[in-house]
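Notes from the 1:1 (GR / supervisor)

We went over the backlog. Supervisor wanted to see one worked example end to end before approving the batch request, so GR pasted a single chain during the call. The sequence is below; no edits were made to it. Supervisor asked that the structure be written out right there so they could see what the output format looks like.
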Amino acid sequence: LLDTEVLSQVVMHVPSRPWFSSVVESQKLEWTDLYMFYSNKKPGFTVSCPVFHEPDQTFIGVTGIDIDASQ
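Structure output shown during the call:
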């Protein structure tokens, strides 16, 4: 089991974020342009992709990962 630490509690309207809305529109993997992360004020990218329900391929959401580009 990995140790976890809450860095901050960030409140945001996810559907308005570019990493989310671009995937909802395209229904494919998307990379954001370089931007400053809200939570830690460091530059980075977000890679996000759609999530589909297996039996009928119904779109059910978006998952993503942040890549820190500060180093």
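Supervisor's comment: The beta strands are 30-31, 35-36, 43-53, 58-68.
Batch request approved.
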